[in-house]
Amino acid sequence: MNSQVHEGRQVICELTRQVAYLPGGKDRSGQPIIIVPANPDGLPESSGKKYQDLDRLLHYFGHLISSTISAQGAMVILDGRKATWKQIHSTVDQVQASLGPLIHTLVAIRPESAWDSQNVDCMKGKRDLKVTYSTVGKLSRIIDQDQLVVELGGNMIYKHDQWVRNQLEFEALFREGEESLADMDKLRVHLDNAITGLSTLEGMRKSDENIDATIDFYRKSIDVPKTILKRGRELIARLETDDESGFKMGIQTDYVIQSQKKIRELLDLIHTKLVTLEQSYAELIYLTDHVRELKFLENGIDVVVNWVLGHGADLYRQLAARGVGLDETETEELQRQLEALELRCREYYGRYAEVRHRLSIILRSNALLPPDLKSKRDLMDSVCRTFAGLLERRRRALFVAFRFHQLRQECLGKAEEVIEGVGSSAAEEDLSKAESALQDLDDRQSLIDPLFIEVEIECKRLIELLSPIQMDQVGRQLNDSSSARESQFALQLLENCKSSHQAALQAISLERLRLQRIVQIFSCEKDANQALDWLKELETVLRTSNCKVGSSLIEVQNLKDQQQKLHDTAKVRLIFFHL
């Protein structure tokens, strides 16, 4: 037997011409039925092409039947109703030569009229196989009608084109499924190797080019088994309800059942391997994402630390070298430069916050981590916090310096106003103006004294911020002689302000003394006028009230007491005037 014809695509022309066909029926012993038209193409008796085509097609049918474990052979029905006896004999010989021991029963069909002209019951072929000659009407004695096609007197509907299409799709699906299984095994090896490589610290640090290639290979390969699985399920579902091609569930022959079983097993195996591949791919994606996350975090740590220790530290040292400013304008300019530096730091602060947050998540997991990841995180925390502390301290120093210069200028201005305003009032001519000038001096002193106290406080705060030794992120000293010079300069400015304050206080004291004397002079004048008025009144009283000398001892005593009382009152007034 020619074992090379194993697939329907090899005999697609013969199948399409229906040189022979397997309608799906079976005899009463359960053997599949092969129907062979004796002269399907109407070729001359001498043509050998039809027998070559028949040989190839029968070899293919033999392969289908022999693939069934329980198959004992096949029943061959040779339809010779449109053929001559010679064609029937030649076809019988070809069937015996092609199928050989796979023939269980061989029946040749002749029209009813043929038995009238020739009295032939049976004959033996070249291979000593009994051939039964019968008519369509007598086939029902050996084959059930529901197993016979309509053309042979049965009631089984059969469409050959549909059978060919289903069988070819069946075989193509099985063939592609076998190839897909081999590809899936290769893909599984690639995935396992990639997963094994990413499960070690050494593999994590290697380039991920191979991983990307494996992922691309998976994405390109995984659609094929999914498509085959979908096609197979659709084909099985269609064949289960197919009444016209011999594939319907419950009526198939053994070879169809066995073929469908193989397809189902193949689809189950594809599904199992597909699930395994998807699980492996999910694990690979998880490990890949984990490795990429680690690389992102390590790169983020390096970017933040390198910028803070490099360019950021250089910018800060340049800013710190300029000090806190010698006046209000310069300090304000330094504040703007510091704000510009803080704006440049926002990008890296945001990167630091993102890396810190994602680090906190990954460190809480049970995933494999590099042993130095925590130490890198601690270094980044220390560097960023130290740098942020330096910027905050510089911002506070500049703020205090700006306020110190601002208060100092205000204090100097107030002192100058006090000095210029002292002695300019015309208080010598009016007591009320003098008293008002004294009140104005008190008000001015109540303004300048707290202002100077604030200047002293801000100066002390500024010196405190400039005095401690400042270290950068890696412990290098940032203070230099400029900080000491700025502290000395701040003390000098405070001394100048103090001198102006003392001068203003001295001017206020002298002016207050002058105004107090003016007030005293006006008071003395007022008291003197009042004394004169009182003396005049006293003189009048003495002339009018004290002219009697008394007529009795008691009256004299009373007059004397009144005189003494008047004398005492005058004495008290005199003492008050002298005061």
Attribute tags:
rod-shaped, mainly alpha, 5 strands, 579 residues
Summarize the structure in words.
With 579 residues, the chain is mainly α. The chain contains 14 helices and 5 strands. It has a 5-stranded mixed sheet, with helices on one face. α8 packs antiparallel against α9, α9 runs parallel beside α11 and α12 runs antiparallel to α13. The chain is rod-shaped. About 2% of the residues have low confidence.
Strand and helix order: HEHEHEHEEHHHHHHHHHH
User: pLDDT under 50 segments (min length 5)?
Assistant: 115-127
Assembly level: single chain
Q: What overall form do the CA principal axes indicate?
A: rod-shaped
Short structural summary:
This protein is mostly helical. The chain has helices at 12-17, 49-66, 85-99, 114-117, 160-198, 201-204, 209-221, 223-240, 254-321, 328-364, 373-421, 431-466, 481-545, 553-578, and strands at residues 33-37, 74-79, 103-109, 122-124, 130-134.
